[in-house]
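Reviewer comment 2.1 asked that we show a complete input and output for one of the modelled complexes. We chose the MV4 case, as it is the one discussed in the main text.
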Amino acid sequence: MFQKILIANRGEIACRIIATARKLGVASVAVYSEADADSAHVALADEAVAIGGPAPRDSYLRGDAIIAAARHTGAQAIHPGYGFLSENPDFVDAVTAAGLVFIGPSADAIRAMGLKDAAKRLMDAAGVPVVPGYLGDNQDPAHLAAAAETIGYPVLIKAVAGGGGKGMRKVTQPGDFADALASAKGEAATAFGNDAVLIEKYIEKPRHIELQVFGDGQDAVHLFERDCSLQRRHQKVIEEAPAPDMPPEMRAAMGEAAVRAARAIGYKGAGTIEFIVDASDGLRADRFWFMEMNTRLQVEHPVTEAITGVDLVEWQLRVAAGEALPRRQDQLAIHGHAFEARLYAEDVPAGFLPATGRLAHLAFPPGVRADTGVRSGDAISPWYDPMIAKIIVHGPTRAAALQQLSRALAETQVAGTTTNLAFLGALARHPGFAAGDVDTGLIERDLAQLVAPPAPAQQVLAAALFAAADLQGRPLEGFSLWAPLERPLAIQRGDAVTVGRLRIGTEGPRILLDGESHSAPRLAVIRTDAQIHVFDQGQCFTFTQVDPLARTSSTGPAGNATLSPMPGLVKAVFVQPGQAVQAGDRLAILEAMKMEHTLTAARDGMVAEVLVQSGAQVEAGAALILLEEEQVPA
Ligand code: MV4
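Response of the prediction step:
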């Protein structure tokens, strides 16, 4: 085993890898950007090396600086985590050339799986089912159109260099093919510098079921499947293992196919074979097809760990250090059921806009695995993925595990940034999801219901008013000898001001609100500076205390400036000075965190100034568009 390894990553995955290294008695070296100097992964590691500026290209993507850090600290091996350099074959070559071990597959294996058409050919030759289609030797549009006819509509055009749905177009009839092809090629050329496409039969009602594989370069095993069908815009939201309703013969067939795939490339380390499954007629052993192979440890690996009892990072270190696979296939079995929910700093009702902010408070309930790279007081930086934590639960049955997930989400407390907790909770209670009726369209179909921002219940308002009364501190402040033992209190959330009364009588302190009298509710309440946070069912409601005697002028103009919510690239601007807009109208598109975000008008008004042009790189908080001052009636 290694004495010391370097982790070329940040956040929760860096913390996760450090934990296993420590368990095995292996020393850990963290690397960090300027934005991460005070972060959890740096604090947790035995040593840490600064490698550059906050932008990934100036730090976590700098292979040279990372290899230099490994040599300088005497680390023998580099674990890449996921993302960043994890699937970059040139980095693997550079690590090996420096006399270090890359904890992962060979550069050749990564290259073999990097292009969709080559990977499909390889898998087809190895006897792994692939989606019927055309692999695109001839890219002539007329030839591709003829191939689509042969396959039969509907078809899907996919960029060979693609991923995450970019350069992908569904075509339902021949008349639409030429336009769809041109736009898919255009998008692929921009995104990947490679406009080659392949054509596939379009699978209706697809499910995304992936197999965890593990190789030692000689042999390979699988660690069963994960179902990642609950996605939104190609972002996984909740994953589970095993897949609901998987027939045993289909599980056996998928496991064998995945092991054949791993053996075909002499795979070493942890990998995932992604299959697309046609679930239009239930799950059937002859309706799964190879999609792609991910040559890394995946974000959702903990659900596999939960059902198999295997520490996948331990296996990665042992295999990279030259040991054989720790278990044979017949020594691996599924125990119970596991779910993972991805907790993000994001504004769900605003269209899943990534959010930033300082975590005033972060706490998880006991008995739950929470993989996180942030602590109370840490900032969610605009530079990186806004994931706060992965919440993982395990139970004897799917129903038991789902109930645990629901409870874990309801009892998780996050204050200081808006999160997707309420959305995750709504999903965990979704009847279709509970019935195991998962497919990749579930979220989109029921989106309105799932994203509705929950309003604070009366007891939340009462709890906040109790906190505003500060009964522990100076309970009688504001009372006078000649007045009744009652005084007004006011709190504000957004534009909404709530006024109640505190009464101290023989039955103890009560809050009078909308004609009802409340005793102190049993809800968790936390005060930070001027704010009161009340937690109810996983939702954090934040209030500020306001002076109940002051005139409430809280609903002033919604502000004149549209600000950039994060650093990014302005892709388009839709308005000009002098143009009238209504609340909700599209003003501009910002590309950030690999996604496009539509910026909309916060209120009705007239555009006064457009401060940026399409193509501009902007900082978080930069003013992009100004509206004219609102005419406030006298
Ligand atoms: C498909 C498909 C239907 N038919 N291929 C999306 C991303 C990429 N990894 C593969 N994807 C799909 N490929 C054929 N032939 C539907 C999707 C798809 C999808 C797949 C898995 C999970 C979520 C998805 C959401 C939309 C489309």
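Confidence is low (pLDDT under 50) at residues 551-558. We note this here for comparison with the apo prediction described in Section 3.2.
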